[in-house]
Specification:
six-stranded mixed beta sheet; three-stranded mixed beta sheet; globular; alpha/beta; about 45% helix; binds coenzyme A; about 260 residues
């Protein structure tokens, strides 16, 4: 159990709230484990029709905890992060995300597995895998080119720069941009709407859209995972992550 992930089920909605504000909701192994358990529990609970993931009004998540990456990197496919990705990529019930503030790394890639994504104008997305000496994860090397088109995906994944909610909307990552003060209520309303729909038809429709790409997605996640884990111990990645924690610019000139 961790107090950094809050879960609650009400009105047939399972809510998962990221709650580590002092570290910008950076995700630790314990948090991934709690999130994976919550998604699996929601799938198994006949009372639940939809899952809503959100952070704070000024922060969704700064992505994986970089200290964790350096000190206890994920080792294999039974690691908490992989369990979480498995859970959201195979979820039969709809997943909704409400995103405000930073949504970095997995904070953006997890959205590619959601069915509805609402973002506030203050949302700042980023896929900084290359700048960190890493490769994409969560199936994003397959899903993002499909969702956004190759050129848009190439810009976001190769350069790894932050981008706005407007750009995320144009890339197809975001469903709708909602004013900051209304975001969570809007997402909850959408979840209530989904929860009121005929559940079998809803799940069958999601399955029809998702199942055709299930096999290539599982393969992409495996291949990405193997390369990602290898990159984590590379000198380039260690320099990038250490520089962030030491609050300095990384220096890649010697590589
Ligand atoms: N891992 C570990 N700690 C993190 C973190 C992360 N991914 N992101 C933020 N933090 C910590 C900072 O070290 C800082 O801790 P401190 O107060 O003990 O010094 C605290 O959270 C606040 O972060 P700060 O950078 O001061 O906030 P900001 O508002 O200026 O910037 C971000 C927010 C998200 C843009 C910035 O923190 C960032 O770029 N984080 C790293 C994102 C990243 O590379 N994630 C990995 C993706 S694979």
């Amino acid at each position: 159990m961790t107090e950094h992930v809050l879960t609650q089920t009400r009105d047939r909605i399972a809510r998962i709230e990221l709650n580590r504000a002092d570290k910008k909701n950076a995700l630790t192994a314990e948090m991934y484990a709690a999130m994976a358990d919550a998604v699996v529990a929601a799938e198994a609970d006949a009372q639940v029709r939809v899952t809503l993931i959100h952070g704070k009004p000024d922060c969704f998540t700064a992505g994986n905890d970089l200290k964790d990456f350096l000190e206890r990197p994920p080792h294999g496919e039974d690691s908490p992060v992989f369990r979480f990705l498995q859970a959201i990529s195979t979820a039969r019930k709809p997943l909704i995300a409400a995103v405000a503030g930073p949504a970095v790394g997995i904070g953006t890639t997890m959205l590619l597995h959601c069915d509805l994504v609402y973002a506030a104008p203050n949302a700042r997305f980023q896929l900084p895998f290359v700048p960190l000496g890493l490769v994409p994860e969560a199936g994003s090397s397959l899903l993002l080119p499909r969702i956004a088109g190759y050129q848009r995906a190439a810009e976001l994944l190769l350069l790894g720069r932050p981008f706005t909610a407007e750009k995320a909307l144009a890339a197809g990552i975001v469903t709708e941009v909602i004013p900051e003060g209304e975001l969570l209520e809007y997402a909850l309303d959408a979840a209530l709407g989904v929860a009121a729909l005929p559940p079998s038809s809803l799940r069958a429709t999601k399955a029809l859209m998702k199942d055709r790409q299930a096999q290539p997605l599982a393969q992409a996640m495996q291949e990405e995972g193997a390369q990602f884990r290898a990159c984590l111990s590379s000198p380039e990645a260690r320099e990038a992550m250490t520089a962030f924690l030491e609050k300095r610019k990384p220096d890649f000139s010697r590589f």
